[in-house]
């Protein structure tokens, strides 16, 4: 009886993933049109357009245009202070829900696999993967690689709690439903050395924008994967239409801190140009980079969804994670000006904010003067590209359409 239960449980993730793949195949087929018009789904998730193709944008003029260079003062990886802010604010509001959305939108991990999480940060994506894999088969593993010590410290702190529970499980023979174990390594992806052909699957959620040498970093992912293995990459779309970051950018400019704009917008500048509004340029670059590293069957989809903050004050904390965040916040006069502008802009311009509960001008200035934001819940749209590809089965790349789902 116990054996049967275990067997059924063991196969559950596989069946779940199989159904997911079948659904995914059907939904990708539905989205095969190159660029479709805006449409909403009942789940609240919005599919604005889908770009599903192989190499359709390769050779377009965008990669040859000279991108606006990123400021040389842009300082990534994240410091320990930024990492703490990231874990306490950004992870819950943005990265954990988007990690889940990302994993749900691309082929899911299967029980028993060894999965690589590239630029794993504080582990939001790794934990989502580990929860799907489960610990029942005792083979499933997640390995997270990140260049920031502070981020990895935060991730390890969380993993220690599960490690304790797993050890207790072993001792008592209890059968708690626990996630697969995760190990983390601090090393830039460009310098990471791994045994070849050892991972069954890899993910990179909002990290590829920061690679200093994309070709080296992506080639290292490629080498570490088994033939046929899937690789999924998420990068934010250009900032246009992502109100929170548009407002933060405008506040920096109005506070005469334009030099920080390229740093703020780095996560939204995969094409290399922080002023670019072209989604095609970003997709083109992503696809080119993946193919250059050796991957095939590259599909890119675009997704938009709301991110929710409890208040304007909470939304403002996003700035504390930026490399210039501490400098901005430690200058009391500058930060007061920045905060006032931010709240005013969000309350007046942010079309996503507190829908249907707009404040009158008097009320607004009163609230901003008194330093309160009235507890307004903030709902802002974020937009991301999800790329999906695979390592060829054999050198030279034997194409297999069955791996396109
Ligand atoms: C926005 S965070 C995303 C973290 C995580 N994937 C998530 O979704 O929460 C970007 C991460 O990329 C890491 N990173 C930046 N450059 C890197 C590199 N060259 N190699 C590995 N990690 C890098 C940073 O340290 C940071 O943790």
Polypeptide structure, described:
- The longest helix is centred in the first third of the chain and has 29 residues, at 2-30.
- It is globular, with a radius of gyration of 22 Å.
- The protein has a domain at 2-239 and 276-302 and 384-396: Vaccinia Virus protein VP39 (Rossmann fold), CATH 3.40.50.150.
- The chain has 405 residues and is α/β, with parallel strands linked by helices.
- The strands form two sheets. It has an eight-stranded mixed β-sheet, with helices on both faces. A two-stranded antiparallel ribbon has the order 1-2.
- α2 crosses α3 (124-133).
- The two termini are 35 Å apart.
- It has twelve helices and ten strands.
- The model is unreliable at 1-74, 353-357 and 397-405 (pLDDT under 50).
- Pfam families: Methyltransf_25.
Task: Please provide a brief summary of the model.
By secondary structure, the protein is an alpha/beta fold.
Distance between the termini: 35 Å
**What is the ordering of alpha helices and beta strands?**
HEEEHEHEHEEHEHHHEHHHHE
Could you give a short account of the major beta sheet?
8 strands, mixed
Q: Nearest-angstrom radius of gyration?
A: 22 Å
Instruction: Please give the order of strands in the largest beta sheet.
Output: 3-9-10-8-7-4-5-6
CATH class of the domain at 2-239 and 276-302 and 384-396: Alpha Beta
Oligomer: single chain
CATH architectural label of the domain at 2-239 and 276-302 and 384-396: 3-Layer(aba) Sandwich
- What is the number of strand segments? 10
Helix- and strand-based class?
A: alpha/beta
The CATH homologous superfamily of the domain at 2-239 and 276-302 and 384-396 is termed Vaccinia Virus protein VP39
Q: Looking at CATH, which topology of the domain at 2-239 and 276-302 and 384-396 would you report? A: Rossmann fold
| Estimated share of beta-strand residues | 15-25%
Number of alpha- plus pi-helical segments: 12
Mean pLDDT: 79
Please tell me what the overall shape is: globular
Helix content: 40-55%
Q: What molecules are bound to this protein?
A: S-adenosylmethionine
């Amino acid at each position: 009886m116990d054996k049967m239960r275990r067997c059924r449980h063991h196969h559950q993730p596989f069946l779940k993933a199989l159904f997911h793949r079948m659904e995914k195949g059907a939904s990708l087929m539905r989205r095969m049109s190159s660029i479709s018009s805006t449409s909403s789904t009942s789940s609240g998730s919005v599919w604005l357009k889908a770009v599903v193709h192989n190499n359709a944008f390769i050779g377009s003029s965008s990669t040859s245009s000279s991108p606006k260079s990123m400021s040389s003062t842009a300082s990534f990886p994240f410091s320990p202070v930024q990492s703490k802010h990231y874990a306490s604010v950004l992870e819950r509001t943005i990265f954990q829900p988007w990690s889940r959305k990302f994993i749900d939108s691309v082929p899911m991990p299967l029980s028993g696999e060894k999965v690589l999480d590239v630029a794993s940060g504080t582990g939001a994506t790794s934990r989502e993967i580990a929860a799907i894999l489960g610990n029942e088969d005792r083979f499933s593993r997640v390995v997270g690689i990140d260049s920031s010590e502070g981020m990895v410290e935060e991730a390890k702190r969380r993993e220690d709690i599960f490690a304790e529970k797993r050890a207790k499980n072993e001792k008592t023979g209890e059968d708690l439903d626990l996630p697969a174990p995760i190990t983390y390594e601090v090393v830039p992806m460009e310098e990471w050395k791994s045994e070849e052909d050892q991972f069954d699957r890899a993910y990179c959620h909002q990290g590829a924008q920061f690679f200093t040498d994309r070709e080296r970093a992506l080639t290292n992912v490629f080498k570490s994967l088994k033939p046929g293995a899937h690789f999924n990459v998420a990068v934010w779309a250009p900032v246009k239409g992502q109100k929170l970051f548009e407002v933060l950018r405008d506040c920096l400019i109005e506070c005469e801190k334009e030099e920080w704009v390229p740093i703020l917008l780095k996560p939204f500048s995969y094409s290399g140009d922080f002023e670019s509004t072209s989604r095609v340029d970003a997709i083109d670059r992503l696809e080119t980079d993946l193919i250059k590293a050796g991957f095939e069957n590259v599909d890119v989809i675009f997704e938009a969804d709301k991110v929710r903050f409890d208040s304007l004050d909470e939304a403002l904390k996003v700035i504390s994670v930026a490399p210039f965040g501490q400098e901005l916040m430690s200058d009391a006069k500058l930060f007061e000006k920045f905060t006032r502008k931010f709240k005013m802009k969000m309350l007046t311009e942010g079309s996503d904010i507190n829908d249907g509960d707009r404040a009158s001008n008097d009320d607004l200035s009163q609230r901003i003067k008194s330093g309160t934001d009235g507890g307004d819940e903030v709902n802002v749209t974020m937009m991301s590209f999800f790329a999906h590809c695979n390592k060829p089965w054999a050198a030279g790349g034997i194409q297999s359409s069955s791996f396109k789902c």
